[in-house]
Each structure stands twice: as C-alpha cells, then as structure tokens.
Design brief:
Blueprint lengths: L1 H15 L21 H30 L2 E2 L2 E2 L2 E3 L4 E3 L30 E6 L5 E7 L4 E4 L3 E4 L5 E5 L4 E3 L101 E5 L5 E5 L15
Antiparallel strand pairs: 1-2, 2-3, 3-4, 5-6, 6-7, 8-9, 9-10, 11-12
C-alpha cells in the first residue's frame, strides 16, 4: 500500500512538471510509513510467543479434560442426574461432605471408611448440631435426645432416652456368661432361662425384691427351686394365706423342744409354734406335747 502511494505522488509530480521549464529539486525527501527494523522483529517474536502460549493452553485443556474424564453428564465417576449427583466406585473426601441424602445402588451396599473415625452430624436451621453419630476405632458414640432402632415395617425395636430404655421385641436374650447386671429396678412380665440351663437371681451385697400387683409365679418344670440367704427369708402375705402344696414338706433342721426331765429318742414329732412364730419339734404323744417342750421358746 505504501509504495503505491509514493508512486502515485511521483507520477502526479512528473505530469504537472512536463510542460514547464521548472527544474526538479535535487533532493527529494521520501518518508517511509510503518514498523521496520528491530521493532518489527520484536512484534513478530511477541506474536509467535502468543501463538505458542495459546497452543500450550489448548493442549493442557485437552489433557485435563481427558484425565478428569469430563463428559456432558459429569466428570469421571461423578454424574449429574435429575435426582442429584451419582458417584460410582470408591471416593475419598478430604473435607466435610454436606448432603441431604446418601444412598447406595440397589445391588450394592454403602460403605463409609476412614483411618480415624466417621462422624455424621445433623444440624438445624441455625447451624447447631442436634444429633451426632461418631464411629471411632474403639467406641461408637451417639449424641442426641433419643436413639431408636426400628424394624423393616417401622416397629420400634430399641429406644433410649434420658428417662428409660425400651426394648420393643418379644424376647430379650442375654447370652453372656455372667448374665446381666442391673443397678436399679427392672420391670418385665417374664424372666426365663434358656432350655436346660439354670436361672439364678442374685444380689451379692444388697436385697432382692420381687413385686407384682396380681401375683408372682415361680415355676421349675424339670428341676428344683432354691432360695439361699445369709440371714432371713421372709414370706409375707398381707391379705391371703401361705400355701405349701406338695406331696412331701420337709423341715430337716427344726430345733427340738426340751422339757425339765430327760428326753428319750423319738421317731414321731409334732410341729409347734412359739408366740413369736418360731417353729420347733416336740415328741409326739397321745395328746399335744407342745406345752411340755416349750422351753425352747424362752
């Protein structure tokens, strides 16, 4: 473009001066318009560097898309669906994960694994923690107002709060060799041992009390019932009677009553009662001999 302009100027100048006798100036000043020299080389070098940077960025972008497995549906094993995010395979989270619902596929289980512990928090609208489940290497902790385990049909199986523990199953089985230790009272309609194993109710340092508004039934279908005590065993009925219904009732260690004279050995005895309720034996006779052998009541 620049040489053509100069040529047009020269032709016009020559045309206008052909018919005249004017002499052409000896010194003609030609001005070159544009970038030349080292400036032009620097411009080409800058354009070349810019093209190299663009090619490198484009190559890095293609490499990142290929490595991260970007696709129209998501990135790698992470897919975006209408219901939310779908993540396949194993994933590692370096920071807390906030989600409304987490569930596995229908044909696989959900596994949460950590080298230290796994903590699940529930927060309210103010951001305060209202419930927490912490699974550690030595202990599982649950913080909340109530802890409840339900069956498949929604029936409460186990419920714990600050006031009570409720077991909703039809049967509670304790298989430990030492049994169960209760520091306070236990309310249950039935206490039964497993088949062919004994049932023992024991209070090592305190008393054992069984209360029921309609009655207490102690039954052993294929064995004995033993009640052992260091001090006294009391059977008390406020309105009814104490009934011992059996083919044989034995009291092998009842004391024998004594009287003033010497006693001879007897084979038959009768059971007598002192005014304070103490039982003793007296030699059987034609008539009652309790009065004669009542010295044991003194």
């Amino acid at each position: 473009m620049e040489p053509s302009i100069q040529q047009m100027v020269r032709e016009q100048y020559t045309t206008t001066t052909q018919c005249t006798s004017l002499e052409r100036p000896e010194n003609q000043y030609v001005y070159n318009i544009g970038i030349y020299g080292w400036r032009k080389r620097c411009l080409y070098l800058f354009v070349l560097l810019l093209l190299i940077v663009l090619v490198v960025n484009f190559a890095l972008t293609i490499w990142i898309l290929k490595v991260m497995w970007f696709s129209p549906t998501g990135m790698g094993h992470l897919h975006v669906t209408k219901e939310g995010l779908r993540l396949e395979g194993e994933s590692e989270f370096l920071f807390p994960l906030y989600a409304k619902e987490i569930h596995s596929r229908l044909d696989s289980s959900l596994l949460l694994q950590s080298t230290h512990n796994v903590t699940v928090n529930a927060r309210n609208s103010d951001g305060e923690v209202t419930g927490r489940l912490n699974v550690g290497p030595k202990m599982v902790e649950v913080h909340g107002q109530q802890f409840q385990i339900n069956s498949v049909d929604g029936k409460p199986l186990f419920t714990v709060d600050e006031n009570e523990v409720v077991v909703g199953t039809d049967k509670l089985r304790i298989t430990g060799p030492e049994g169960a230790l209760f520091e306070h009272s236990v309310e249950t309609p039935l206490v039964r041992a497993e088949a062919f194993k004994p049932l023992r109710l024991e209070s090592p340092t305190r008393s054992l009390s069984m209360d029921a508004p309609k009655g207490i039934n102690i039954k052993a279908q294929a064995g004995n019932i033993e009640a052992l005590s260091q001090m006294d065993i009391k059977l008390h009925s406020s309105d009814g009677v104490l009934l011992l219904d059996a083919e044989t009732v034995r009291l092998p260690k009842l004391p024998e009553g004594t009287r003033g004279g010497s006693d001879r050995s007897q084979e038959l005895y009768e059971i007598c009662v002192c005014p304070d309720g103490k039982l003793y034996l007296s030699a059987a006779g034609r008539y009652s001999t309790c009065q004669e052998y009542s010295h044991v009541c003194q």
